[in-house]
From TrEMBL:
Keywords: Membrane, Transmembrane, Transmembrane helix. Gene3D superfamilies: Glycerol uptake facilitator protein. This is Transporter. The keyword Transmembrane helix applies. GO terms for cellular component: plasma membrane. Its main location: membrane. Pfam families: Form_Nir_trans (PF01226). Belongs to the FNT transporter (TC 1.A.16) family. It comes from the Bacteria. The chain crosses the membrane at residues 27-53, 59-84, 105-128, 156-175, 187-211, 231-252.
């Protein structure tokens, strides 16, 4: 049912691999752009959210999450390379045997590094702009960062699975619809869902940590806390994108053997229904 979508994803995955092989600086720059785009969206989200946070509004996190989808619009239409969505792309292409696991790992590592460098450079520019240099340690940005570094490891891992499950669906579903307006609405809604729900996204967390670390902050914001968060969140993101979207849709779109259909009444019934719809 989603074969055309899988073909598009495989084509994109191969182009990512080929670009990395042909010119690592070009690929790295695209990954850096994605990191910067995440930074732009976070600054907007926490600036808007702070207005509601200061008056203790219950809409604080809703308003903070509302604009974060802009980052994914910038990445999709601005030619950025994001680590979390690549967990889905390269998993599917490797299962389809158009890329290898070695190539997958190389793309993931390079993309993650590029995202980090992009966020780091964005944070340095932001620091010199003074945008967050006058905030207090009770600012919404710092409060969110403190919560992220104090959550139990198991919570972080499973929240990260949910986050990238939704993020990769925000990439997968737009491939199945026509029209930019529909694509943008789907992305905004799914990213809004993951952000509002309190799930954990490794690249977004990098931006939260680096921006809060270079702004007035409490003692809880430190390198040890960052690592406590980023390691389980990165692993959870890989599971969320690679397994719950990549492997799952690969499996669902593999041809069902005739012997399996003949021996399974449920498959017989579902096959008849599907054929009738056609």
């Amino acid at each position: 049912m989603e074969k055309e979508t899988i073909e598009k994803i495989c084509t994109s995955a191969v182009s990512k691999r080929d670009l990395l092989k042909a010119s690592m600086p070009h690929y790295l720059l695209r990954a850096m752009l994605a990191g910067a785009y995440i930074g732009f969206a976070l600054v907007l989200s926490f600036t808007v959210g702070q207005f509601f946070y200061e008056v203790h509004s219950p809409a604080t996190y809703v308003m903070t999450a509302l604009f974060f989808g802009i980052a994914f619009i910038l990445i999709l239409y601005g030619g950025g390379e994001l680590f979390t969505s690549n967990t889905m792309y390269l998993t599917i292409s490797t299962l389809k045997k158009v890329t290898s696991w070695k190539e997958t790992f190389l793309v993931w590592v390079t993309c993650y590094g590029g995202n980090f460098i992009g966020i780091l450079l964005f944070t340095l520019l932001l620091y010199f702009s003074g945008v967050f240099q006058t905030i207090g340690v009770d600012h919404l940005l710092v409060t969110v960062a403190e919560k992220k570094v104090t959550l139990p490891t198991s919570y972080l891992f499973f929240r990260a699975i949910f986050a990238n499950w939704l993020v990769c669906l925000a990439v997968w579903l737009p491939l199945r619809v026509k029209g930019d307006t529909a694509k943008i609405i789907i992305m905004m809604l799914l990213v809004f869902t993951f952000f509002t729900s309190g799930y954990e996204h490794s690249i977004a967390n990098l931006a939260v940590f680096l921006i809060s670390y270079t702004s007035p902050h409490s003692e809880l914001i430190n390198v040890a806390g960052f690592m406590h968060n980023l390691i389980p969140v990165t692993l959870g993101n890989i599971v969320g994108g690679g397994f719950f979207v990549g492997l799952l849709f690969f499996f669902l779109n593999e041809p069902i053997k005739r012997k399996e259909i003949q021996s399974n009444p449920v498959l017989i019934a579902s096959t008849k229904v599907f054929n009738n719809k056609l």
